[in-house]
């Protein structure tokens, strides 16, 4: 083999090997930071991973918010109209958090099926619902006909399941 071709071959092999290593290390580093969204119906169906960081969202069921008297612990149920998931959060809730409104929670699902939230995000005005929450509610068929096909929906138009 000609020395110039041998040098080029070695260079190409080095570039390919370095690229593979870089992609592998990047994927390994980011795997814990991937934050997938699961609606309550997927969580109840067992599709969400246990003890992995995920996002969930839905509407807070009216009458289901329970606050501890001696701490900042809060338990509430979120729904997409098809299923309900219990959420436990310890901390100060956003000012816009309210029953019957859309929320997105970050955290992990424990072995008992309770979502242990580390962060609660509430909607920011009276007509906004996060697109993931709106899509999951629309897929479950829980929105009324006036709100279907729009991300500008509120949980007020939902038919809450039991």
Question: How would you characterize this protein structure?
Answer:
The chain has a five-stranded mixed β-barrel. It has two domains: 1-34; 36-157, Nucleic acid-binding proteins (OB fold (Dihydrolipoamide Acetyltransferase, E2P)), CATH 2.40.50. The longest helix has 28 residues, at 3-30. β3 (66-67) and β4 form a beta hairpin. The protein has three helices and seven strands; from the N terminus they run αβαββββββα. It has helices spanning 3-30, 40-44, 131-140; strands spanning 36-38, 53-60, 66-67, 73-79, 84-90, 102-109, 115-122. With 162 residues, the protein is an alpha+beta fold. Helices cover 27% and strands 27% of the residues.
Quick summary:
With 162 residues, this protein is of the alpha+beta class.
Q: What value does the Rg take, in angstroms?
A: 22 Å
CATH classification, class level of the largest domain: Mainly Beta
Number of strands: 7
- CATH architecture group name of the largest domain: Beta Barrel
By CATH, the superfamily of the largest domain comes out as: Nucleic acid-binding proteins
Anisotropy-based shape: elongated
User: How is the main sheet built?
Assistant: 5 strands, mixed, barrel
Task: Measure the end-to-end span.
Answer: 76 Å
The amount of beta strand, in percent, is 25-35%
Helical content band: 25-40%
CATH topology name of the largest domain: OB fold (Dihydrolipoamide Acetyltransferase, E2P)
Class of secondary structure makeup: alpha+beta
Oligomer: single chain
Look at the structure and give the mean pLDDT.
Answer: 80
Low-confidence stretches: 143-153
* SS element count, helices: 3
Compute the number of structural domains.
2
Output the strand order for the largest sheet: 2-4-5-7-6
């Amino acid at each position: 083999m000609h020395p110039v071709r041998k040098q080029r071959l070695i260079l190409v092999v080095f570039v390919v090997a370095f690229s593979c290593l870089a992609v592998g290390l990047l994927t390994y580093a980011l795997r814990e930071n991937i934050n997938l969204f699961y609606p309550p119906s997927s969580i109840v169906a067992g599709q969400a991973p246990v003890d992995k960081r995920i996002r969930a969202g839905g509407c807070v069921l009216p009458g289901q918010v329970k606050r501890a008297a001696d701490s900042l612990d809060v338990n509430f149920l979120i729904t997409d109209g098809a299923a309900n998931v219990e959420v436990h959060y310890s901390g100060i809730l956003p000012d816009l958090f309210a029953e019957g409104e859309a929320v997105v929670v970050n955290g992990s699902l424990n072995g008992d099926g309770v979502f242990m939230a580390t962060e609660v995000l509430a909607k920011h005005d009276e007509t906004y619902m996060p697109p993931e929450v709106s899509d999951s509610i629309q897929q479950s068929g829980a929105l009324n006909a006036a709100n279907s096909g729009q991300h500008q929906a509120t949980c007020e138009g939902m038919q809450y399941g039991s």
